[in-house]
Amino acid sequence: MQIPFSKYQGTGNDFVIIDQREITYLTREDTPIIKYLCDRRFGIGADGLILLQQKEAYDFEMVYFNSDGRESSMCGNGGRCITAFAKQIGIQKSSYHFLAIDGPHDALIREDEWVELKMGDVSNIEDGKDYYYLNTGSPHYVAFVEDLDDINIVREGQAIRYSDRFRKEGTNVNFVEATEDLIEVATYERGVEDETLSCGTGVTAAAIAYYLEKPSEQRQLVNIRSKGGDLQVRFQPKGNEFTSIWLCGPATLVFQGTLEMPPYG
């Protein structure tokens, strides 16, 4: 069977995206195939794979898998990329309303092609010793550091992700360096089990943690630099809850193609 696909990237976080509105190419049980498609040597190569599907009362449904082939929690950059993909395949809207694993999301594409994605509200933030732990659609551990260049992201990220607390369910780990005008963020992602060039839910968590470090109106709009490019997060704090959270940044088509499905099963 041949599968048509598009590959998108959002600040270096890359995804294979498949339109399943008319034909079901993959299901949640196709873990080996999805892992194969994401493999950078034998497949297309990506941090994750996304299915765009029909969903009543929504413009579409987003079903996201990590590169290990398993369905995962919300992916912010993936949500921005699937919005750009929806426009590409003819779903023309001034704004989009779609369903993901963590609930409904709104999105819009600006004239400069930046995609703005509304994230879910955030509460129940753990303010620990030298870290914050919060869920922005996916669980994130956030630690502030003096210099990102001094941190081995993979080694330090694995130590936290596979610690006694997080070994079973896993967590994403973000290291954040604050400068005068922005924050720089590096993320170790569970499911990918490596550092990625960018993580949408990760930079969202980092922006909220940055506000909690030193609350001010200026920190309600945070400019972010990841290794894959620049993003922006804005939000409204209300006590211990954060609402109207928007993740903003580019989402770019890399290439399109058709792949012959390998003989699994």
Question: Your description of this structure?
Answer:
- The protein has 265 residues and is an alpha+beta fold.
- It has 2 domains: 2-117 and 251-260, Diaminopimelate Epimerase, Chain A, domain 1; 126-249, Diaminopimelate Epimerase, Chain A, domain 1.
- The protein has helices at residues 31-38, 76-88, 153-161, 200-213, and strands at 2-10, 13-19, 48-53, 60-66, 96-100, 103-109, 114-118, 126-128, 131-135, 139-144, 172-178, 183-189, 194-196, 221-226, 229-238, 241-250, 252-260.
- The protein has a 17-stranded mixed beta sheet that branches.
- The protein is globular.
- The relative contact order is 0.18.
- The model has no long low-confidence stretch (mean pLDDT 95).
Which terms summarize this structure?
alpha+beta; Diaminopimelate Epimerase, Chain A, domain 1; 17-stranded mixed sheet; 4 helices; 42% strand
